[in-house]
């Protein structure tokens, strides 16, 4: 699986799956533009061969437009940024909902609007280009307790992905959605630490994974690289579940 000669932009690349993807794509030969709202986190990628970092808040339309104007056309884009709201519909304020929709969905719409023209140019000249959107098994795939805003917005990501795939399939621009299971990342550790009983919270997260363990970021990166590479050139509009069997 090679990403040689491909320029790939990744959002939320400061930590977790975004950071691991930046490293994996660079190791596969891509020129990676790793972006995150948090410049300090991006410093962890400084000096990694094949990776250039840019601060980008995906909720800011002006920042997205400025970055798109400044970058070469992309061969691949991984929209990874997202936020987990914890609670039922009874706990969900309008502000929480608006924030989740903005970060989890509207940001991807804006990123696609800004970068699809360049992706289409590369698809035309190179024969393929790819978008990967971060969804979740908690989406239209399956309901989970305390994940109202999260599940609804990640379901919207799947709908957005299929619509974009349909619009550009004849132009060789593919668009797929990744649906991970429970992945051990800094934000998951934060959710565990902020639970009333963190030890039990960790057990509960592990218990919902039939393989009896959390996923690591390295369980995700081979699929991410594959979906951004020409190895998946006949795959588009799909929700790819890497969930350790939760949705069997
Ligand atoms: P994380 O949540 O630990 O890190 C998120 C990163 O996003 C941070 O570096 C943060 O600075 C950045 N970020 C936050 N707001 C941003 C903004 N406005 N603009 C740009 N960057 C911003 O990483 P993770 O757990 O790997 O999650 C990444 C994605 O994967 C999210 O969309 C999440 O919903 C999704 N996901 C996570 C899991 C899991 O179990 N961890 C499972 C399924 C899906």
UniProtKB/TrEMBL annotation:
GO MF, any single term: oxidoreductase activity
Pfam families recorded: adh_short_C2
InterPro entries: NAD(P)-bd_dom_sf, SDR_DHRS6-like, SDR_fam
Keyword Oxidoreductase attributed: yes
Entry keywords, A to Z: NAD, Oxidoreductase
Source domain of life: Bacteria
Family: Belongs to the short-chain dehydrogenases/reductases (SDR) family.
Descriptive protein name: 3-ketoacyl-ACP reductase
Organism: Antarctobacter heliothermus
């Amino acid at each position: 699986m090679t990403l040689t000669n491909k320029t790939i932009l990744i959002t939320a690349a400061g930590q977790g799956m975004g950071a691991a993807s930046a490293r994996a794509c660079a190791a596969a030969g891509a020129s990676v533009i790793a972006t995150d709202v948090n410049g300090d986190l991006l410093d962890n990628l400084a000096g990694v061969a094949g990776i250039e970092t840019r601060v980008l808040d995906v909720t800011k339309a002006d920042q997205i437009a400025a970055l798109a104007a400044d970058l070469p056309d992309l061969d691949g884009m991984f929209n990874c940024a997202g936020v987990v709201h914890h609670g039922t519909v009874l706990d969900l304020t309008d502000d929480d909902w608006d924030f989740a929709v903005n970060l989890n969905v509207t940001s991807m719409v804006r990123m696609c609007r800004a970068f699809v023209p360049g992706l289409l140019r590369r698809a035309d000249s190179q024969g393929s280009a790819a978008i990967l959107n971060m969804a979740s098994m908690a989406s239209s795939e399956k309901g989970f307790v305390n994940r109202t805003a999260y599940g609804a917005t990640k379901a919207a990501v799947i709908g957005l992905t299929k619509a974009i795939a349909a619009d550009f399939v004849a132009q060789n621009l593919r668009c797929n959605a990744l649906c991970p299971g429970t992945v051990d990342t800094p934000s998951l550790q934060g959710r565990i630490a902020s639970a009333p009983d963190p030890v039990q919270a960790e057990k509960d997260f592990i218990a919902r994974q039939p393989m009896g363990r959390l996923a690591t970021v390295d369980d995700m990166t081979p699929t991410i690289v594959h979906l951004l590479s020409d190895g998946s050139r006949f795959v588009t509009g799909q929700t790819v579940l890497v969930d350790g069997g939760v949705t069997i």
